[in-house]
Design a protein that fits this description.
Layout lengths: L13 H17 L11 H17 L3 E6 L6 H14 L8 E6 L6 H11 L3 H4 L7 H11 L11 E6 L1 H4 L6 H11 L5 E7 L4 H4 L2 H4 L6 E3 L6 H12 L8 H16 L1 H13 L3 H12 L11 H12 L2 H7 L3 H16 L7 H13 L10 H13 L3 E3 L14 E3 L3 H10 L5 H8 L4
Parallel strand pairs: 1-4, 1-5, 2-3, 3-4
Antiparallel strand pairs: 6-7
Helix pairs in contact: 1-14, 2-3, 11-12, 13-15, 14-15, 16-20, 17-18
Bound molecules: adenosine-5'-triphosphate and magnesium ion.
Pfam families: AAA_16, ORC4_C
Protein name: Origin recognition complex subunit 4
InterPro entries: AAA+_ATPase, AAA_16, ORC4, ORC4_C, P-loop_NTPase
Length: 435
């Protein structure tokens, strides 16, 4: 790749090179710039493009779900497909698109208003009053028909955070959209984007039965070598960088960086915890922000430091915001975890462990009634620092529900060190080996 480049002899002043480098890499890492081709998602890209083409070109109705974990590239995949779809010759340039997001359109009334707005039909609707949601939607789709009423423009309905629409009253929007997509009324494609694998379980029977059951999954089966390769390409400068020599040196330095043993260790840790692009880009952005004329390369130490920042993670930070009681419960759970080697525990066991600690102190300043402890436990669960061990939990009484701790010992110890004015005895208890 490097040799085929038309090496430009132009030499820019070093300062400008770095400004340009920062601009290009920042755009790539944090401005959500669309990649030319979504890496590693070729099959999904092709699949979705074909599907939407059938609607856009042939007017076939359809429905599909894009499912994958956070940051895996679902929204990016869809945007790439839409971009490429519009480049196809047969596709009508003013293919209609309606973009909804479950976080914004929190009920179907708002959603319908937004659909009307995005289809530019506010004037057509005027102050008409509709009997039902279905009637209103049918009116909108009817309004899109061509003058001779023979054919209708295809409309793509994109529903990001699709699972949230399932919480709307009677799932009216989903029902009606999927119903239209199943009948010959108007050509529409309904594309749902979600990170919930179990999303179909959320749909009512009559809604589910109208869905095509097509799903596109973005589950990564990435190998570590590929991950390192992605890191390298994300940090490399493109062939058309204005100063060829500068780009070549930079790319070489990145290659060396990626071969470093300590860098490999850091990347391995990130790879093990999450393989997605978003968290990788976060890590690289932290490294990049230190680069300047005065510090012209990314060193392994920078990556180490960036990784530390990334892993000073939300959970450990959350521990700082806990009350002393909640912190004590976490410590009790840590000890239970150590003793029972990670077996799940219930509130009663945690409370007993906590009591053991209190009993060792003659004049205890910590006196808590059971309901207070219960409340603290609930709060920890809301923060997802603890979670039910299995789904049958709902049937058991709260105190006996089996739970698991979602933070590990190193996170707890780190939080303890930084906890403002943590009582010494609590600290000692946390560090003691036997509860
Ligand atoms: N295969 C890929 N190739 C290049 N960039 C990618 C790829 N996958 C993800 N990215 C980048 O990672 C970032 C996160 O992707 P995106 O926003 O699409 O995630 P998402 O799956 O929609 O997450 P969420 O569920 O939180 O909405 C974006 O900046 C995107 O450009
Ligand atoms: Mg998204």
């Amino acid at each position: 790749m490097m040799s085929k480049r038309k090496v430009k002899d132009a030499h820019l002043p070093v300062g400008e090179c770095f400004t340009e480098l920062q601009r290009i890499l920042r755009e790539r890492l944090c401005h959500q710039q669309l990649p030319d081709k979504p890496v590693g998602l070729e099959a999904q890209h092709k699949n979705l493009l074909e599907l939407l083409k059938r609607t856009a070109v042939h007017g076939e109705s359809n429905s599909v779900l894009i499912v994958g974990p956070r940051g895996a590239g679902k929204t990016m995949l869809l945007k790439c497909v839409l971009r490429d779809l519009l480049e196809e010759k047969e596709v009508h340039k003013n293919l209609l698109q309606v973009h909804l997001n479950g976080l914004l359109q929190t009920d179907d009334r708002i959603a319908l208003k937004e659909i009307t707005r995005q289809l530019h039909l506010e004037n057509v609707v005027g102050d008409k009053v509709f009997g039902s949601f279905a009637e209103n939607l049918a009116f909108l789709l009817e309004a899109l028909k061509k003058g001779d009423r023979s054919s209708s423009l295809p409309v793509l309905f994109i529903l990001d955070e699709f699972d949230l629409f399932a919480h709307h009253k009677n799932q009216t929007l989903l029902y009606n959209l999927l119903d239209v997509s199943q009948s010959a009324q108007s050509p529409i494609a309904v594309v749902g984007i979600t990170c919930r694998l179990d999303v179909l379980e959320l749909l009512e029977k009559r809604v589910k039965s109208r869905f095509s059951h097509r799903q596109i999954h973005l589950l990564s089966s990435l190998a570590f070598e590929e991950y390192v390769e992605r890191v390298r390409t994300q940090l490399s400068l493109p062939d058309d960088f204005p100063d060829g020599k500068f780009a070549e040196d930079w790319n070489d330095s990145i290659k060396t960086l990626c071969e470093d043993k300590s860098v490999e260790d850091v990347l391995q840790r990130h790879f093990n915890s999450s393989k997605d692009f978003r968290s990788m880009q976060m890590l690289l952005m932290l490294c990049l922000s230190r680069v300047s004329v005065a510090k012209p390369a990314i060193k392994p130490a920078d990556l180490l430091e960036a990784s530390r920042l990334c892993f000073a993670d939300a959970k450990a930070n959350m521990l700082h915001g806990l009350s002393i009681l909640e912190l004590c419960l976490i410590i009790a759970m840590k000890h239970l975890n150590d003793v029972y080697e990670g077996e799940p525990f219930n509130l009663q066991m945690v409370h007993n462990e906590f009591k053991k600690f209190l009993q060792r102190k003659s004049n205890s300043m910590y006196k808590f009634e059971q309901p207070v402890i219960m409340k603290a436990f609930e709060h920890l669960q809301q923060l997802e620092l603890i979670r039910p061990a299995d789904s049958s939990a709902a049937k058991t009484q709260r105190e006996y529900q089996l739970m698991r701790l979602m933070v590990d010992n190193s996170q707890i110890m780190e939080a303890m060190q930084k906890y403002p004015q943590c009582p010494t005895d609590v600290k000692q208890w946390a560090m003691s080996a036997f509860g």
